[in-house]
Amino acid sequence: MSPFPRRLALLSLAAFAFALTQPLFAAEPTKRILFFTRSAGYEHSVVKVSGDKPCYAETILRPLCEKNGWELTVTKDGSVFTPENIAKYDAFAFYTTGDLTGPAKDGSNPMSKEGKAALLQAIHDGKGWIGFHCASDTFHTNSDRYHLDPVEKRDPYINVIGGEFIHHGAQQSTTQQLVDPKFPGLENLQSFDKTEEWYSLKNFADNDHVILVNETKNMKGNMYQRPAYPSTWARMEGTGRVFYTSMGHREDVWTSPQFQTVITAGFRWILHETDADVTPNISAVAPEANTIPPSPEPKK
Q1: What integer best gives the mean pLDDT of the chain?
Q2: b/e map of 19-38 (b: 16 or more CB within 10 Å)?
Q3: What are phi and psi of 297, to 5 degrees?
Q4: Residue 165: Cβ within 10 Å count
Q5: What is the mean pLDDT of the segment spanning 114-140?
Q6: What is the pLDDT of residues 65-75, one digit of tens each?
Q7: Chain-centre distance of CA 274, in angstroms?
């Protein structure tokens, strides 16, 4: 054999061997999640940071994200909300309180008003968002909490998440009725009882797709003297996917199979790893959701 054909054969063999080492399909890029835990109001224990140790919520979320192949970044620094930084993430998780554009006791940087607007626009344009517990106790509408506000007067953040905190009473057990067992990831979940710091909520969006309903008939406290209302839901905000659950105050809730099942389903949906029928159903499954509970009597 002449040198040229031999060289060509060797090159072809090398090229074939290299091809065998390459994946048949390009790997999907890792989904990136920003977990924002700034407390401009009350700071819950599950997001309190002590020294260099991560907060309790992070110790639950990080292995969950690793198991699903998601990259998690955790911060209390509101200055990260710039258009350039927002573009780096696929979804945002909030465990926050108060006006995040104002000061916080821990001295963390506030979110700018421009940053808030950029985040809400990014969600509308397709980014995912998931909120736990006090995410609904953030950017309150400037009105009496025991009052239903028209959509145009609600804070834009509240309109994005689809509901707002009123108040909570003593921690107690109540039933969470599963009203959408077909939501991807929740097919094996059933209605359940849970002890938690249950939020009474208002200002629900008309296009909320309710997943769990908070039963109230045996609950104690004036804020629960109302018909059953949504406690976990999904909704579309423009082309963005929004998911909220009122659960998440107690550490044992974070470790419970029901909570982890619910939030995993939420994450997978907002990250476009599953598709769900989120046709608005609030008027069917919680027809009296917008009934405001009686305001507490003023202290004498």
Answers
A1: 92
A2: eeeeeeeeeeeebebbbbbb
A3: -65, 140
A4: 21
A5: 98
A6: 999 999 999 99
A7: 16
Q: What is the pLDDT of residues 257-273, one digit of tens each?
A: 999 999 999 999 999 99
Q: What is the 3-state secondary structure (H, E, C) of the chain?
A: CCHHHHHHHHHHHHHHHHHHCCCCCCCCCCEEEEEECCECCCCCHHHCCECCECCHHHHHHHHHHHHHCEEEEEECCHHHCCHHHHCCCCEEEECCEECCCCCCCCCCCCCCHHHHHHHHHHHHCCCEEEEEHHHHCECCCCCCCCCCCCHHHCCHHHHHHCCEEEEECCCEEEEEEECCCCCCCCCCCCCEEEEECCEEEECCCCCCEEEEEECCCCCCCHHHCCCCEEEEEEEEECCEEEEEECCCCCHHHHCCHHHHHHHHHHHHHHCCCCCCCCCCCHHHHCCCCCCCCCCCCCCC
What are the CA-CA distances from residue 220 to residues 109, 174, 225, 257 (Å)?
38, 10, 8, 26
Task: Work out whether strand 229-237 and strand 240-245 pair parallel, antiparallel, or are unpaired.
Answer: antiparallel
270 and 70 in contact (C-beta within 8 Å)? no
Under the banding of pLDDT at 50, 70 and 90, the label for residue 2 is low
* 92-124 tens-digit pLDDT: 999 999 999 999 988 999 999 999 999 999 999
Predicted confidence at residue 3, as pLDDT, reads: 53
Tokens representing residue 25 in the block: 């399909």
